[in-house]
Amino acid sequence: MSAQPKPTSGRSDGLLMAREGLLEVRTMHGGDLDTVAAIEQAIYPFPWSRGNFADSLTAGYDSWLFEAGQRTVGYAIVMWLPDEVHLLNLSVAAELQGCGFGRAMLRWLMADSERRGAPGMLLEVRPSNQRAIALYHSLGFHRIGIRKRYYPSWNHSREDAWVLRREFGDE
Length: 171
Known about the structure:
alpha+beta; Aminopeptidase; eight-stranded mixed sheet; 4 helices
């Protein structure tokens, strides 16, 4: 699976395969915010708000929508830093989780980032999110630190975040 070059205009930013079929990748826009926010609300106990997504678009972060036909499979938000990219959000619709879409999406994001010159990717993940951690480790991410009390949690407490990083070109 390889990333397709990102066109400067038009609907399709690339195509990729997941176990369940062909995915189209395109830039997220304001008209997608209700759909993305609804998926986010359905899959996380402490979801991003619609406003968080709108702010990401306004800030100019790479905001991607992954679709199969007319169906939104998932989305990702990536912030570019001087020496890497920071994956802020990678999510797959609840009913489509476990079908290989998250892996396909992350592979596309890594290939696109590397193609565009990033030397690596950074992300945070809840230690309790073992499914995500397994995915990240399988694709070469390694824990480099902990952000104490980073995420909201139940009973007004906070959960640490594991900071993971993957260098590109180290396969």
